[in-house]
Amino acid sequence: MRSIAAAVQAGTLTAEAATAACLARVAAREDAVRAWAFLDPELALAEARERDRTGAHGPLAGVAIGVKDIIDTADQPTAYGSAAYEGYRPAWDAPCVALSRQAGAVMLGKTVSTEFAFVAPGKTRNPFDPGHTPGGSSSGSCAAVADGMVPLAFGTQTAGSIVRPASFCGVVGYKPSYGTLERAGIKVLSGSLDTLGVITRDVRDAAHAVAVLARRPALAVPDVALPPRIGLFRTSRWDMAEAATRQALDRAVAALAARGVAVREVAVPGWFDELFAMQDIVMGWELMQALAHERLVLAERLAPKTLALMAEKEAITLADYDAAVAALAPLQQRFHALIGDLDALLTPAAPGEAPAGLGSTGDAVFNRAWTMLRVPGIAVPAGLGPGGLPVGVQLVGRLGDDARLLAAAAFVEDSLAA
Amino acid sequence: MRSIAAAVQAGTLTAEAATAACLARVAAREDAVRAWAFLDPELALAEARERDRTGAHGPLAGVAIGVKDIIDTADQPTAYGSAAYEGYRPAWDAPCVALSRQAGAVMLGKTVSTEFAFVAPGKTRNPFDPGHTPGGSSSGSCAAVADGMVPLAFGTQTAGSIVRPASFCGVVGYKPSYGTLERAGIKVLSGSLDTLGVITRDVRDAAHAVAVLARRPALAVPDVALPPRIGLFRTSRWDMAEAATRQALDRAVAALAARGVAVREVAVPGWFDELFAMQDIVMGWELMQALAHERLVLAERLAPKTLALMAEKEAITLADYDAAVAALAPLQQRFHALIGDLDALLTPAAPGEAPAGLGSTGDAVFNRAWTMLRVPGIAVPAGLGPGGLPVGVQLVGRLGDDARLLAAAAFVEDSLAA
């Protein structure tokens, strides 16, 4: 991605040619992958030619972006992954889209999301095996980047919707600290949790994109990352980690050791497991409010799986919700103390390889606690599992110190590639 | 408002008759007040008849609501107070609208907002004197409730956009604790500050409406409010308080004393004034992101005042923003200690009466610090100023303890009416 922007800036590549290459890949592979909710090649090429015409050579010059379908676009339909909003056309671009265009990017199309970024899967398949889920809710974004259709895509995470599908698809999925990227123009699921992030092929691309869009140049990672201090954190749900994930973590630890970084294990404190129930309660209570119109007016057009899980959330009480909200700040402080002088925690990104079947996008068990804490997390590809599908590891950092996390993640990535 | 709902529930009033009464008032007065951005009498009556037909007698049965024009509605246009979005029709109702309809209310129309709830005024006049501003950004909502056109209207506050116009119009304006009411479907100005609230004619109506919509029954205020502990807090900007506001506070203190409540003054700590710069920085940095499409694509169609103030915000630095965000939690803790065992602080709602002229909606100096702290605040009418226009006082409470604030505000209101 950075190489594309650099070439377009240097005049050795046009935005049109870069976009055409993406479209060629889509044409060859979309029947199998089904990553796109909407894609009009002529519209994308017209935008690319407009970039070339105006010479707008910003930091994302010529970069084709896949925009998750829960993100508003003025020139393309936005259906929020739902039949209930099929063909809907918002009046604006969400800020992340508007700022990307200003930076020189081209919106290639809208990528498949689960319905409202909740649980009902879309049509996307795992590019490595069409019988397996790509993960979700950012299904199309992860599949499209994994398959070489676009170098950058937007994802959002409320439970595990960036990091988990990135791990399943063998790409980088970066969920910044809560609040880093503006969320206006993005369908709300849970205001306390929803986080906009990016999917890319390497850590430095993810850092570059968010540095540009959040106006935080310090997030960019230098070419040579310094050896980080990293702790291994198995979480309180380690029994859910399959062989693929355990082996991926072992590979990461070994690769770091080979470059002189000793990973020490950090014990899992008793309070950590409280975060799971908290995340479930906060998400459930808030989505019942945020999706009020859908629940009350559009119910007949929603997926059965959406309705079934909404019905379950009716049982959440106000007392439970208030207790969960009140518990957050103290647990954030405890986490800050736990991570201590480490740059990042190394932890599972997903239970294992992408599960077989398309009826579920997999389990967010290794993501939900981090989303609740609002801390940044990033999935880094770590080879293939026993089934031949990709598996990632996750690095987690301190709230608001994404630069430190990204540098550590880049070092892990470099080590695994060495 | 509660009496309307009770009568409709009891079958002694129809939603249609209640709505028709509101429409009659609009017909008589809209030429002078100009509170409405959109109002279709037939559409409102049709919704009312539908309520009567289905016998949906919820806790807001037959209550006609004015919906601030930055809040999405599926059956009415939503222009966000801007010529750039004239005639735009969203695909959904914002949750606050959907939940109101479910509770039996009727959406009378869309009320005038400043452009994007920022600074460029709309067409609304103060119902007490058409040469004076109604305040903003919730201009039409406050004017419509003040003029008897609706018993309930939605407002939003990012700086002082509920409490200030409520004070100028002689109505109750309640900004709940940040996060109390869901904000999905509401145009984002500043995600860290934007708060949805309500405008009503008395405190118990405001408490009832938010209790219903936030699913927090404990917010409802009993008919007999107990004597509260209240401190007088002049803020660090007391020199901005005009005679009208000083006298209103004096009246409130005297009314409380007459009912046996001694108001003691709370000294203003040095840190309090830091909140003003923080609010300005957080709002300015965030709105430049949230309104990216408007700023980058729609600039030619925006009000000059919007563009001019946006241009000023370009100067805010990331370092300033991060420092402001980091300063919030410690100041929230200090405020919690400051309020101590008091139920509420009594403090100005606005500098004075509504200023003459329609070119500005007035100064949010007595609101911005509270919005930054995310604490609940409520304007309570406190008579007329020397110029014959209304002036309110503000009660401010602890974050998340809105029930205590509302009970205290109801006691103040009762005392002033005694």
UniProtKB/TrEMBL annotation, chains A, B:
<dbReference type="InterPro" id="IPR036928">
    <property type="entry name" value="AS_sf"/>
</dbReference>
<comment type="similarity">
    <text>Belongs to the amidase family.</text>
</comment>
<dbReference type="GO" id="GO:0004040">
    <property type="term" value="F:amidase activity"/>
</dbReference>
<keyword id="KW-0378">Hydrolase</keyword>
<dbReference type="InterPro" id="IPR000120">
    <property type="entry name" value="Amidase"/>
</dbReference>
<dbReference type="Pfam" id="PF01425">
    <property type="entry name" value="Amidase"/>
</dbReference>
<dbReference type="InterPro" id="IPR023631">
    <property type="entry name" value="Amidase_dom"/>
</dbReference>
<protein>
    <submittedName>
        <fullName>Amidase</fullName>
        <ecNumber>3.5.1.4</ecNumber>
    </submittedName>
</protein>
<feature type="domain" description="Amidase">
    <location>
        <begin position="18"/>
        <end position="406"/>
    </location>
</feature>
